[in-house]
Amino acid sequence: MTAELRRDLRLVADLVPAGARVLDIGCGDGMLLETLWREKGCDGRGIELSMAGVNACVTRGLAVIQGNADTDLADYPDTSFDMVVLSQTLQAVRRPRRVLEQMLRIGSRAIVSFPNFGHWSARWQLAWRGHVSGGGLVDEPWYRTANIHPCSIADFVDLCVRAEIAIERGWTMGRDGPPRPIRAGANLFAREAVFLLAQA
Question: Is residue 157 in some structural domain?
Fold first, then answer.
């Protein structure tokens, strides 16, 4: 029995068509890939930086290799996947624009989820406490996180415009409740965002 998916991954799983060829970048322990295989008969592959994550995926019987999103996506042929997923990893890559462009080269569609560093709690943390972590969106001290390019929803949308990437749909997520379509005020009040992307 598959454990319950993280909320953003549940939305991602719902967006992936049955039988799709899927590449999950930064797939962690493989829970999303396993869910897509069991629930939708998807042909899933993964790429994961940590050896512990790769081992967890292999234990689940998943086709996952150790690799780096910043350097290894160039090895995949054009349009080799229907969907390419990058969940909670965008802020940890060195070249976010290049990674997004590669995702849409090797896949027909891309799904990206990330924490919204424009959220009011992150702003409050920095403005009133003088710290960028430890109580807002990130509970760990800044020097222990993998975040090197934190972005807001507004930053992400701007990047998509500059890179000529089409945003087909977008959702926001708070602590509780279902995902909601992107709307006014999302940059201030959403804790996480999920976007479905395509080539412009």
Answer: yes
